[in-house]
Every structure is written in structure tokens, then in C-alpha cells.
Amino acid sequence: MENAGVLRGAPDTGSYLSESSVKSWLTTTDHKRIAILYAFSITLFFFLGGVAATIIRLELFTPNGDIVSADGYNRLFTLHGIVMVWFFLVPSIPTTFGNFLLPLMIGARDVAFPKLNLLSWYLFVIAGLLTVATLLAGGVDTGWTFYTPFSSLYSNSNVLLAAAGVFVAGFSSIATGINFIATIHMLRARGMTWMRLPLFAWAMYATSLVMVLATPVLAMSLLLISVERIFGLPIFDPRAGGDPLLFQHLFWFYSHPAVYIMILPAMGVVSEIIACEARRRVFGYQFMVYAMVAIAVLGFLVWGHHMFVSGQSPYASMVFSFLSFVIAVPSAIKVFNWTGTLYRGQIRFSAPMLYALGFLGLFTIGGLTGLFLAAIPVDVHVTDTYFVVAHFHYIMVGASVSAFFGGLHFWWPKITGRLYSEKFATLAAITMFFGFNFTFFPQFIAGYLGMPRRYYHYAPEYQIWNVMSSSGAVILAAAYLAPLAYLGWSLVRGERASANPRGATGLEWSVPSPPPTENFDRPPVVTVGPYRYHPEHETHQAPDHPAHEPQRSA
Amino acid sequence: MATPPSALHEPWREPERQHDAMVFGLWVFLASEVLFFGGILLTYAVARHADPQGFAAGARASDLFFGTLNTAVLMTSSLTMAVGERALKEGLVRWARWALIATVLLGFAFLVFKGFEYRDDFEKHLVPGLDFRFTGRAEQLFWGFYWTATVIHAIHLSVGIGAVGRLLLLDWRGEMPSHWMGAEATALYWHLVDIIWILLYPLIYLTGRP
Amino acid sequence: MMPVEASAFAGRVDHLFFLLIGISVVIIVLVVTLVFGFAVRYRSGSKAKRGPLPRWVKREVEIGWTAVTLFVALFLFWWASSAQVEEWTPPPNALEIHVVAKQWMWKTQHPDGVREINALHVPEGVPVKLVMTSQDVIHSFFVPALRVKQDVLPGRYTQLWFNADRVGKYHLFCAEYCGTDHSRMTGSVVVMTQGDYARWLAAQPQGDDLAAQGAKLFVSMGCSGCHSEGARVHAPSLAGIYGTLQPLSDGSFVRADEGYLRDSIMLPRRQVVAGYAPIMPSFEGIASEDQVVAVIAYLKAMPKGRNEAR
């Protein structure tokens, strides 16, 4: 089925990569090229944040300070948090795969506002430069959470510069969100109804909604900190009657939904991979869609579970606890549906599939430990300890980054037009899964034993868990570095990929690899739903009915 | 509505669709702006709730005259903006030109009056931290809000003036008629900035006054 | 692998924790078994039966597991919350200890005026209530062995209570990041038998107890100039005020707890008692947190009805 194996003309002529001058890259409005620009930027930040993480883990090998000073340590974990959250995880999947694939998946020529798309990359670069400037100026020591009154009145570090970086990055995110929402609403190909959208497109839609509605609140709260710091105008200052908890409410009103900005795209990627590599329709497609929308909406209503010990009203805590348990339901539905998708499939254990299965395991553990944190008495004990650190790393790093690497391998032939070494990729995927668990599982135990987070010195009885964690981090670092080598090799020497080497459905596979600048010769017309990997007897269609009309009619 | 093909950008194939998308995108942006201002309005609510009397006492020191004058100026500018946008859509370029010029001038007038008001506020020691007139905390919080909110609003208004100015620049080059879509987007944004002021006006100038 | 349980409450938190682990293990085993089972059985090219799913699988299964997860979630919420609700209010007879946090130190003060730094001695088997505030940024009082944690905020009081039932010395950590020496802002909570505690208290350098310190401050800071019989200024009497319902000028009522008393000293205009003019000056920046604590202790100790007897 499909037009698998079709190779049109010479591989690179007419592809989006054919123009190679620096100017053509810096002024491009092609969504695919912007995706590549983003990919380079976030890779740099991923390794910058990774270096900070490595030094942190080295420092924690022993209970006392060895490598850096206490202030140095505080600046490192702040840098790690800011860079990884706003300069890697939040933009990672949306700005790279989202930009590259969304228009292709829905049969569009480009995103709705190509110039805005380029602008958002420039904003991102400016934000990144501000953050690097913060680092060069000596760093910032507030933690990525910027809690007041520490950040607004007490910290002696470069809070303003760092806040400016995050503020600008926020606008980049809002611009991307607006672009995607408008793209999905206005640019779907003929016949691409909402319930025929690939789940990745749905994930982008849900993510964009959260980006557009939550990020401005972060922008405002950072602005208010800056105002208090620069002009001394009282906003949160308790000495002037301000409420320091107000900042936490504003911050988590953004930052809890931000967790879903980081995980929803991963869910989208994994849905695509599992369906393709299991050669099976996604089990319960409609439930998957509703679950994603439910997560995006409920995500706005649970921020207070970060504040159970903050001194907020116990009644408020009760409501937030309840809603936090409820939001576990759509997440669980998704896990069961991915599992169900494997049933009666023809499963191939390719590297992307291993990443996706790794995601499934890590997301399950991360999600279940989320229940612990929704239960107030347990949360009171483990909040601000390594238990929480382990929990959110399971979700944001374990699950989300696994999905990112899964997606990278899955669409690599489409994006670059080259195949990579399946052997090395498989090895890296397995190493990443085990390395991750070795690094972060011991932190659950250290946390339950009471080791607080953001501790430069710690009590000696926690050392054993920290040594395990730091040792695991070495394996994890190797697994993160490996793809640089074999994917780099693939760029130079990799075998040319056909249009659809995986035999996947989806419009992005109907165009050559790498795709031509104009994406489609003619606007595609869609006649059936996604994931037609096997005949479906309930519907009265011929079993091998093509998923999409090949490029014909207008 | 005549739209020359030059105004049609990638990835669009029909001007109507492009126009709808632009308006739609702008509405999404406005939703984002509403949440942005939502953050500062929440700080207002929290501060006022903590000490209603003190907060009102602080608010009574605001300058009702300038506040009201500026409200009138801005509402008039909304009218001229609406006229300009509508006229452009109907192809009445002269009308549009003059209405947009009036809009820009009214926008500047707002900023000038605001400047006068700020000068008075300085002279009346209404800047927290700079020999502030009140000792109470709620007064400080009110004036903290006042400066933050009005400056952010003024920045938004300046962006709006820039956008209308861009339309006039296009007119000077004789390209305005083909940019009625841009005019519609500008108008939407302008009205949002207005609505935010209409929210701020009672919160700042009418609080604590009978 | 498990932290010490130094109170009955710690045991209950651990029960909940084990329940959650149990449920998690069941779910993980289920998912992993299914994933591995399917992965082997339906590996590419295997001979297992494929074909379309039976129709009932599609909807009933989906609705089924949605309902089951929702039920599990609600059950856990019920269990966790009922454990929490019982812990909301400290027993009325609790021993009250004041805690003032600052970068990077814990200062504690017992009812009889004994002060400690980075340490807290408490008797075994007696409920202890901590009334806490911060002089600068947000800190968090965390004792893993007691499974309690509470942020300590500048400008207001937060409370925490526990009933330790196991003699020993336990970690006290600051759990909310507070700057350079956050990780050095640690100390210990020492749980002693009641006899040992009494002996320990007696061995400490004796000063005035808190209420007596407060009584002196009440005069020296000028509170008594207005809040006493015969004062010419019209100000409310404060005798026996603690715990009463105060009518406010806006028609509402407020319970006169520590937070209210503190606000009345630091932010007097925030809640004005009905029938009085808002003339009380703020003591913000004049009275230190320690002094406010002492004055409040005095107000709480003031006998009821002394003034009403007129």
C-alpha cells in the first residue's frame, strides 16, 4: 500500500535542503527549515543543560562540597532548570517535529503565518543569548521557580537578565502556539476532518492551547518580579503588605500546565510510532483525543498541588488534591490504549519502537508517583525532596526525552533523506532506558528518606543513593551522546531513504524524503482516517483502500 | 473588496481564507493578552482584598481629571479606528487616511496626558520608595499596581500607534488599499488596548471615590 | 530503606505510602506483562491470530478501564484526605513553641522563654504546636522522621503540629530553597521523655517566660498607653481577646488567633474592630518578630474579664 519506495528524481534537487547559503537559512520562512534551525538551537541548549547536570551529579557523589562552592552549586541547578525547561523541553518537540511535520501531516503548504514562525525562532535565539549572557555574567541563584521574596528582594545574582531571557522565550512559545492553532483550524487539507487528524497533530493542538493561555501568566509574573527588583515598587514584598504566595499561584498557574506542554507532544510522537511499528490502528483513537484535550484543560486546574505546604488554605489543598487525582484518569487511559494498540499487531522492534516502549514504562512510573504527590499527607512529606525531583524527571526527562529521541529516529529518514544505523540506535535506546532508571530511581528512595532537593551538602546517610544516581548518570550521558555520533555519520554517509521507508501511513510519508520546498505538488485530498495499517472489517471499505488519494484533483 | 494578488501570501490560496486566518490568529493572540493582564488584575484583587480601606485611601490620591480625560480620548480613538478600518474595507481611502491620522494623534494625546499625569504623580510623592507620601502598606501596593499597570498599558498603546503608523506609511506609498486585512488586525488590537484601559479606569480612578 | 517513624502520624503516612506502592506495583505489573506478552505473541511474522478486534473490546473495555481508574483515583483521594482532615487542628492542650526562621538559621523559643538555635527539644507523647514566621525569605520546616513539613513565610504565621512518641534525635531540614546556605540551614529535633525534658528545661539559662517578656514590651512599646483601663484614647480592651470572635467595622467577624493578633500589630488598619476608629499605628519595622511573638504570648495569657469587671 501507499507509494512506498517511490524515489522521485535525484535525492536533493528541489528538496527543502537544496539551498545552502547562510542567508537562505537565516531568512527562510519554510516551516521545515525553521524546524532545522530550532533543532540546532535546542541541541546546543540540551548539552549546555546537560553539562550543568553532570557537574551537579559529580558534586553530589560525596555529602560535602568538592568541586564547586555553595553559590556555584545553586547557580548550576538554576541554570540546569532554566535551560532544560524553557530552552529544551518546552520548545523541543513542538518547534522541531511540530514545525516540520504539522503542515505535512495535515496536507498544508506551510504553517498559517510563516513570517511569525521565523520571528519566533529569532525571539528564541535572543532569549537564548540573554540566558547565555546570564551565565557569563555569573549566573542566577533563584532556582528555576524564581520564588519571591527571594528572587525579588534578596538574591544578589542576575535575576533580571535570566527573567528577561525566560520572558522573551515565552513570547517565542506564544507565537508558535498561535501559529499552530491557526494552522490546524485553517489549513487542513480537503477531507482532513478533526477526527481524521493524526494524534500528533492533536497533541500539537492541545499543547498550543496551553502555550497560548498559560505562558502570558508566566510573562506577567516575571515582569512583576522585575518591577519589584528594579523600581522597588511593592508587589510581593511582605514588608509592604504584599503576598509572597501570590507569586507562587501565578507561577504554578503557568508551570503546571507547562508540564503538559512538555508531555503532550511526547504522547503525540509515541502514538505515531507505536501505531506504525505495531502495524496497528491506535486503540481507541477517539478516547486518545478526548484524553489529550482533558489533560490540557484539567492541567489548568491543578496548580495548587505544588503548594500543599505553602500555607494556602487547607480547603484549597483539598480541591487541588481531588483534581490532581482526577487528571490521572486520562493519563491512565492513554497508557492502556498504547498497550491495547500492541494487541494483534505485527510488532517490529526498531529503535523508535524501543524508545516508545521505554517512554511507556517511564511515563507509567512517573504518572503513578504523581498519585503519591496528589495525596496530601504523602506530598507533605516528600515535596521539596528528591522524591519530587525523581518524579518530574521521570515525566519530563524519562518520558519526554525518550519520545523526543524516538521521534528523531522515526522521522530521521523523512527529515534528512538518510537512513541511520539501526544497530547503534537500538543500543543507544536500550542504554538510555537503563541509564535513566539507574540515575533517577534511587532518588525516589533518597527523597522518601527525607533528602531535601537543592542541597549542596547533605546528611551522610543519603550518600549511597546519590552514588548510585551519579553512577547511573554516566551511563545516561553516554546514551545521550551516542546519537550525535551515529546520526552525524548518517548525515554524511547514510544510505538514501525512500519516501516511506517504514511503510507508514500519514501524509508526511506521501512526499519524497527529504520533502520538496513546496511540500505537495497539488493539495492532497483525504478520504479516510489515520493509521490504516490493517484492514478494518467493521467499516465497509475495501481492505486495501489507499489511505489518501495520491496527489490528484484540487 | 478588491484584493490584488500581491497581498496573498504563502501558504494561502484564497484571500478570504487568508483573511479569516489572520483574524482568527489575532483573536487567539488577544486571548493570550487577556491572560497576561489577568495576572496583574489578580495582584490587584489580592492587594485590595487584604486591606480595602487602605487601598481605597491610596486610590483616592489618583488624578481623576487626567484619568477621565484619557478615557474620553481613548474611546474617541476607538471610534476613529473603527471608522478608518471600515472605510478602508469599503475602498474610501481618503476617509480611512484621515480617520487613521486622527487615531494616531489621539493615541499620542493619551500618552502626552499620561506624561503630565506622571509628572504630577511624581510631584505629589506618589512613587513608592521615592519619598512616598503614604506610610500605609496598602497605599504602597496600590501605587505599585498603578505604575506597573499603566506603564504596561502605555507600552501596548505605543505598539498600537506603531501599527497604525505602519498603515499610514503604506498609504504614503500608495499601498494601503491592499492592506485592509492589516487594518482589520490593527483595529482589533487597538480595541483590546482600549478595553484594557476601560477596565483599568474604574480600578484606578473610581476606587474609593463616592 | 524506610525512614524512622517518630510519631503515630508518621506510621499513618507510611501506610498510605505502602498502599500507593501496592497499587502502583499492580498497575506496573499489569502494563509490563501486557506489553511483554503482546510484544512476544504479536512480534512481526509470528503465527498468532490477527484479524479485527471483537466489537465488544472497542467500547466496553475502554469505558471499563476509565471507570476503574476513576474509582481507584477517588478511593485514594478519600483515603488520603481523611488522613489529612484529622490532622488539621492541633489539640487545644498542645505545647506551643515559636519558631523564627532567617537566612540561614532556625530560632525556637519555648513557652517559658528558653531559646534554642538550630535545635528543638520536645517532650515525648505531648502534642507540640509550632507557630512559625520568617524574617526574610520563605523557608520550610521539615522533619522527615515526623513526616511533617510546613513553609515558613515572612509577614505571617504558619502552624505545624506533631506528637512525637519515640525518643531520639532527628534531622530538621529547611526544605524551601532560601539562598546560599540553604543546605546548611539544618538542625535537629530532640525528642526526650517528659522527665528528661523537664530536667533539660530547668538546666537552661532562665529568663522571663514569653508572656512576662511580652508584658514588659506591652508597656515599653506603648501599647498600654491606649489599650488599658483609664486610657483617654478609645481603644479596645485586649484582656481575654485570644480565641474570641471579634466584630469588624465592615460587619464581618474574625477569630482572634495568632495571625489576627499579629496583623493587628503590624497591619492595624486591615481589620478594624467595630466601633473603633482606625488610629492604631503600625509596628512594622519597629517591633521585631521575636518581640511580636512575646506580646502575643502576653495577650494570650491575659486573664479574661479583668476589664469587664468594671
What report would you give on this structure?
The complex is a heterotrimer of chains A (554), B (210) and C (310). Chain A has 554 residues and is an all-alpha fold. The longest helix of chain A is centred in the N-terminal third of the chain and has 37 residues, at 70-106. Chain A is built from 15 helices and two strands. Chain A is globular and about 65 Å long. Helices cover 78% and strands 0% of the residues of chain B. Chain B contains six helices and no strands. The longest helix of chain B has 36 residues, at 15-50. Chain B is elongated and about 60 Å long. In chain B, 40% of the residues are buried. Chain C has 310 residues and is an alpha+beta fold. Chain C is elongated. In chain C, the strands form three sheets. In chain C, strands 3-2-1-5-8 form a five-stranded mixed beta sheet, covered by helices on one side. Helix content of chain C is 35%, strand content 20%. Chain C has helices at residues 8-41, 55-85, 194-203, 210-220, 258-266, 289-301, and strands at 95-102, 105-109, 115-117, 119-123, 128-134, 139-143, 148-152, 158-162, 168-174, 187-192, 245-247, 253-255. Classes of the chains: A mainly alpha (554), B mainly alpha (210), C alpha+beta (310). The interface between A and C is large, with 84 and 82 residues.
Helix content of chain C: 25-40%
The helix content of chain B is: over 70%
Provide the β-strand percentage band of chain B. under 5%
Which regions of chain B have little confidence, pLDDT < 50, spanning 5+ residues?
A: none
Q: Tell me the total number of β-strands of chain C.
A: 12
